[in-house]
Amino acid sequence: MKKTRDIITIGFALFAMFFGAGNLLLPPYIGVQIGDHIGITILAFGLTGILLPFLGILSIVNSGNEFQDLGARINKYLSPVLGTIIMICIGPLIGIPRTAATTFEVGVLPSFPNSGPILTSIGFFAITWVLTIAPSKVVDIIGNFLTPLLLVLLITLIAIGIFAPISDYNLTLLNTAESFTLGFIEGYQTLDVLASVIFAGIIITASKAKGYSSIKEKNQVVIAAGLLSALCLFIIYGGLVYLGATSGVSDLNVKRSELLIHISKSILGPYGMIAIALSIALACLTTAIALTSAIGTFFSSLTNNKVGYKLLVTVCCVVSCILSITGVDNIITFAYPILSFVYPIVITLVLYTVLFGSFITNKKPYVVALAVSTLIAICSVLKQLNLLGKDIIQMLNHIPFFQYELGWVLPSAIAFIITVIITKKEIGSVKDKK
């Protein structure tokens, strides 16, 4: 009974850590664009928004107790460099400011149209600071109190929207393949693959604190909690995509926050604003708490505790507060090229570690695969920023799936396989000489 209760607490906490601003705003906006291509789009969004984050947790569980253990399997310098990039992205640069900006635009502004974002951001990060300053209590605060209320609110909204749709499916200009690509790429904006390799350390620490000290017990609890979190995410994501697809909104320029407000008002009537304001506040607050705690823990460990956890948490809250004032859409637009660079690298690391880490122990194939993914990710970002000529773009488009921003997939796999074969031959030749 205790083990089941602990799994539920940790699983709910992990769901709430993942489910923040982007996770609530992105699915309905995807739904507006894909019409009746519901199934394929939810599948695609689920790959980058659910499956890969779960594999991220699994990669840490298989490697040790934290992200540093995963990176150390490849190269001792990988963990601090890539870890720093990830933490800055999911932390004060993109992820955390977006939580406060969403709280203001969806939870506060509709009820107080003359208000500004500054006071909301200050209040939001004051609460975040108070609830984050004691890291040992983060998981229990989120899992036992905040998440159940969030789930009840969202499931109520989705259930009513499914049984009494606002409208028929929207018309769409996208075909099935384009809808899949949209769902897959938009899943990047959740930041969850990046967050998963960091959150895993928090969850593993929480499981140990609850008495699961052996490797077997720890792994069982963490993996079970990860599966529970994934199930909750699938239900909520699928429901929100459906609500967007049947929202009756055809304007693709609609602000994501305005779309969510329209859906909640149409489904729940005058109570819609209250429900969505509470949902937004809970979703964003739980994620901000988890991310801020992760920032403090990571950089404190990286500096061998020369920079204290409380100071890092305070600095993170102040910087995030300032950046959050720029607004949700500006943050998302700013984040896209950065995530297009970071995501392929992290996905390559996570996938190959989970799939091959137990029987391919040579580091060279992983290093080569990461290098290839990084190179193609750089080309993809340069293309997005219009810094490449037409001839170079045409050449790059010959790489399978490059035009869908998935050009790193096949080349990194080929590079990995070739390097495995070469290294095996090298090892074999050395043994023959002996």
Question: Tally the helices: what do you get?
Answer: 18
Number of self-contained structural domains: 2
Ends distance: 57 Å
Task: Report the helical percentage.
Answer: over 70%
Question: What's the CATH H-level homologous superfamily of the largest domain?
Answer: Amino acid/polyamine transporter I
CATH topology of the largest domain: Amino acid/polyamine transporter I
- The first-level CATH class of the largest domain is given as Mainly Alpha
Percentage beta strand? under 5%
Oligomer: single chain
Low-pLDDT segments, ≥5 res: none
The outline comes out as globular
Structural class: mainly alpha
> Mean of residue pLDDT?
86
Radius of gyration: 22 Å
CATH architectural type of the largest domain: Up-down Bundle
Number of strands: 0
Order of helices and strands: HHHHHHHHHHHHHHHHHH
Q: What kind of sheet is the major sheet?
A: none
List the helices and strands and how they pair.
Blueprint: H1 2-18, H2 21-34, H3 38-63, H4 67-72, H5 78-93, H6 95-108, H7 117-132, H8 138-163, H9 176-186, H10 192-209, H11 215-245, H12 256-268, H13 272-302, H14 309-324, H15 328-356, H16 364-384, H17 390-396, H18 409-433
Helix pairs in contact: 1-8, 1-10, 1-11, 1-13, 2-3, 2-9, 2-11, 2-12, 3-9, 3-10, 3-11, 3-15, 5-13, 5-15, 6-7, 6-13, 6-14, 7-13, 7-14, 8-11, 8-13, 10-11, 10-13, 12-13, 13-14, 15-16, 16-18
